[in-house]
Amino acid sequence: MDNCTEPPFPSAEAYGRSLGGFGVNILVSDVAATLAFLREVLSVETHHAEADFAVCRYRGHQWMLHSDASYHSNPLLALTGDGAIRGAGLELRLYGVDPDAAAARAEALGFTVLQPPANKPHGLREAYIAGPDGYVWVPSVHKAVPPQP
Asked: Could you give all domains of the chain from N- to C-terminal order, each with its CATH number?
């Protein structure tokens, strides 16, 4: 499943040393299924993918996916084994993704649209979509500015 369109992906140690600032790592039950959801529903790029690890990229931002199997000795895994929805209370927001198109693609692919696209008072049009493990993704765009009288 290794698919990287750029020069060879660095070793785990070299990649870890390259990280800085703020990072997001999402623990998922199936890396390939999550990558398919991100690509097909939200137009997210897969920068690098292996069976148990992936790096996703959207508008210059990167985040990681790790499979449950890759976290065999990590305490976080103990919080995911009871079938509860993962990421409860967390919104993963992708700005610049058309929520109407994303919601339509999600429904066509059998994913749950928790809240259909709507204009919100904070200036965005957004939808709430549950991914394969229940993480909530919020694609959004700026609302159209009403004409001035």
From this structure: 12-142 (3.10.180.10)
